[in-house]
Amino acid sequence: MFEETDSISTFSYDSSDEGASPDAFSLSQLAEAVRTVFRIDDCVLVKLAEGGYHKVYEISASDNEIPSSVVRVAALAFPRDKVESEIATLQYIACNTTIHTPLVYAWNTEDDNPVGLEYMILEKIPGVPANEVWETLPFEKKQAVVLEVAEHIIQLFRLRFDTGGSLYRVRGVDQENFHVGPIISTPFYRALDGIIRFPDSPVTGDEIRKYRGPFPDPTSYLRSFLDVELNLVRHDQVRRRRILQYELDNDEERLEHDFPCVWMISDFRT
């Protein structure tokens, strides 16, 4: 069972994308995946939260024999990489710190899975958001919260890597074996989105992936933001002005001023 009137759910942002196919998934198949993982006959999914790229459902069962848990469905941003990196990051923190991170019971990042989108089933950490009760807390409890957050930050700061990027698990080996791989970052998602906005562009997701690291130093990381945008502009000869106009929010004065600068930067990087 699920708390929605339709067995298919879509992400609300899709309605504003003219001509785009919405990211949709099957709630009935999602419930079936939950039943399979916990080996139960029935369950109820109640929407707990929704953002631009995720929907979270709280899981409950009549026999109350399952742990407190949620199922989180992800929209198509960085297919496979994003969800798998999130899982690897949770597991790495659990292995290398004392920070309480939710257990991940199951996940599916295959593009042909029955649900229709990637998802993970994980432990629901008990508690309430601090901002909802902060004003009512006595000073001593506020101090305890801040100190605990500081201790967590110190533990995270001590984790060091030779390269920069996002964490992934090494496939087919012990779950404590991790590596740094392509970064999950907004600038690269915007570049991928640019391909969607201009579907005839010769630039592909595979081409953009090479700019996502891992990076040997901070300079390479920062330079990659510019490199990936220039790659999109440089390879789209016909609509170069349209791309710039979109990014500058139709500001013709700025467009005329900035256009030669982008040409020079593009020529310099070529």
UniProtKB/TrEMBL annotation:
It comes from the Eukaryota. Residues 1-21 are annotated as: Disordered. This is Aminoglycoside phosphotransferase domain-containing protein.
